[in-house]
Amino acid sequence: MFRQMWCAAALAVAMLPAYAQDATREEVRKLKQQVDELDKRVQDAENAAAQASAQASSRPQSESALNPAVSVILNGVYGNLQRDPNTYHLNGFVPTMGEVSPPLRGFSIGESELAFAANVDHLFRGTLIASITPEDTVGVEEAYIQTLGLSRGFTVKAGRFFSGVGYQNQIHAHAWDFTDMSLAGKVFLGNQLNDDGVQIKWVAPLPFYVDLGAEFARGRQFPAGPEGGQSKNGWGAQTFFAHIGGDLGTSHAWQVGLSHLRTNPRDRTFDDSDSTGTSVTNSFTGTSRLWVVDGVLKWAPDHNPTYNNFKLQGEYFRRSENGDLTYDTAGASLGTMTDAYSSRQSGWYLQGVYQFLPQWRAGYRYDQLSAGTTSAGLVNSGALSAADFPTLNPYNPKRHTAMIDWNPSEFSRIRLQFARDYSRQNEPDNQVFLQYIVSLGAHGAHRF
Amino acid sequence: MNILRNLFLALLCVPLPALAALNVFACEPEWAALAQELGGDKLSVVSAITARSDPHRIEARPSLIARIRDANLVICSGSELEVGWLPLLLTQSGNDRIQPGSPGFIEASQFVIKLEVPKVIDRALGDIHPGGNPHIHLDPRNIAKVADVVSARLMELDGANAATYKSRGDDFRRRWDEASKRWQQAAAPLKGVPIVVYHKDFSYFINWAGMREVGSLEPKPGIPPTPTHLAELVERMKRAPAKVVVYSPYNSPAAADFLSQRAGIPKAMMPFTVGGTPKAKDLFGLFDDTIERLLAVNK
């Protein structure tokens, strides 16, 4: 039957060439269209298959895909110090009982950090950063939730977090430009202040950056703690901060901040050695008010820090404390005595870090503290002498620090640092540190 | 006082720019340009970076937080390209409209077929992106796909101007499809041409044009060129020379210069994104200039 049809068609073609040609053309055109369509379908199917395979290969293989981003920071230091870091102290300032000493002599690992972070749901993000110390203890550096669901520039954080006081306090040690904290950070914030509380922050609807924030916290650490807010409803430490920031052309970005930390320390103790050479414990109860002005300026030509960049950073701290000082709380030496105490002290540092080649940076930091004016009633009244509080004798510590580091990738850094440290009165200390810092796992974003 | 009052009144009289319906924050210039095409004056568009900044490495500047705070729509390449700075901007923004998962957040690379999805994920291989190569915008077909997504999202976010977005979107697609055909023809001589890249940021163009990538100046993705690697590459190029070595405006030309001189291969800076060269004023110019520059060295 088909053959007959074909024959008929052939006959028709032979008989009506003009018409037939048209018909054939029409046929060919239709066929071509069909082929094109099929082609397109095949193409689409191929695309879909490729898409499916691409997605399949990027699709998580297990439920671990929903687990938080995990990262580990490892760091190790070789220290060569002229003076034993175990005897480290800063003359002229109340000891903070924080971990302010430089790294140990010889080889030691620094704190290893273990960080987990993920969005909890559409409203919250959670972060836990645990630190494992070389002494085999585990500490909670930060453990907080943060809102994602608020609008109009508001964010709220709750839990334990690095306080927004000053600039460097919020930055994790592995992201510091020098091995150790500024002297001012050591004496005014006990190296680094992380407290349990709530932070409310608001970013203003302006064409440049303005934020305002407040923190209400337990006061578990210096300057409030350890007793500051231990058994108290409400809070033991309040922090208020404001920042302004913006760009200068495309190559410069800057930010300046003002912050204020208010605490009311209760029985804040420190150890000293009195005039008889006996080790005594003294304590302070009163108010502590800290003001910090901070500024940072970053230069990256064309907003591209890959090859060269420069960062200038500085902070100025000013603290006043008023209250009562108790000598020898345990009655171990000359007997327990209490009288008025007040101090006005300050300190600052300025540092610059220049990336002179890709992967290579060099930096210099200058630290200076001013013991300012201190008035102790126990000494003024003649009950005790200044020699009974050797740590509080006026002295202005200072330090020069230089470093060079090599950053083979975004995840590793090897740093050599040299410091001449005048923290101890009449005992300058030369310190050399060779340090590595590496990060494994999720790629954390760093603050400005 | 009078002067102050007059000054104040004068300030009130300063004409304010017409208020845009939506604020769009684009992580990269190509997405800013796309949004501009699709939304015109209904949008106020900013790009976080310029063509001369490396999207992997910029910092979460305060000015960016200020901008993202008021954004209604964020468009980024995604696939972890911006992982060093975007998460921080998002959490600091205090803006629930643009958090991942909400209509105000577009991760462009999720809507295209990604290349170079790694089978093995190990940082010893360099800074690889587990989700695949994120530099998706140098394939015109990908731009078309993302354009459809962005158009739909603009209509969803700003219903009052939906008709405008629809007609602008249709118009763009018509012009884009025409241009794509033109580029397809123009780029025909590039088929099979061996090319050396600086970073794996040119893969989608290479794939689209059917070129052949035979080396990269970076020894591993994200690791800057080293003398040993370059020397090795020069040797390889002497045996099997590439036709061209390309780099982006955010790369230093030094490594490309070195290879070009030692191995006698012409080098060419690609615009890479909108604004990368004077001719790459918009997305059309970007492809025109990219193809033109490659053809010029492929004679």
Rg calculated over all Cα atoms of chain B: 21 Å
What is the averaged pLDDT score of chain B? 91
The percentage helix of chain A is 10-25%
Across the major sheet of chain B, the strand order is 2-1-3-4
Cα-to-Cα separation, first versus last residue of chain A: 82 Å
Please trace the helix and strand order of chain B, writing H or E for each element. HEHEHEHEHHEHEHEHEH
Main attributes?
heterodimer; A: 448 residues; Porin; 2 domains; 16-stranded antiparallel β-barrel; elongated; B: 299 residues; alpha/beta; Rossmann fold; 4-stranded parallel sheet
Topology of this protein?
The complex is a heterodimer of chains A (448) and B (299).
Chain A: H1 2-15, H2 17-58, E1 69-81, E2 106-109, E3 112-119, E4 124-132, E5 138-147, E6 154-162, H3 183-189, E7 194-203, E8 209-217, E9 237-248, E10 252-263, E11 268-273, E12 279-299, E13 309-327, E14 337-357, E15 360-376, H4 377-380, E16 398-409, E17 412-421, E18 429-441
Antiparallel strand pairs in A: 1-2, 1-3, 1-18, 3-4, 4-5, 5-6, 6-7, 7-8, 8-9, 9-10, 10-12, 11-12, 12-13, 13-14, 14-15, 15-16, 16-17, 17-18
Helix pairs in contact in A: 1-2
Chain B: H1 2-13, E1 22-26, H2 29-39, E2 43-47, H3 62-69, E3 73-76, H4 86-92, E4 105-107, H5 140-157, H6 162-186, E5 194-197, H7 203-209, E6 212-216, H8 227-239, E7 244-247, H9 254-263, E8 267-269, H10 283-297
Parallel strand pairs in B: 1-2, 1-3, 3-4, 5-6, 5-7, 7-8
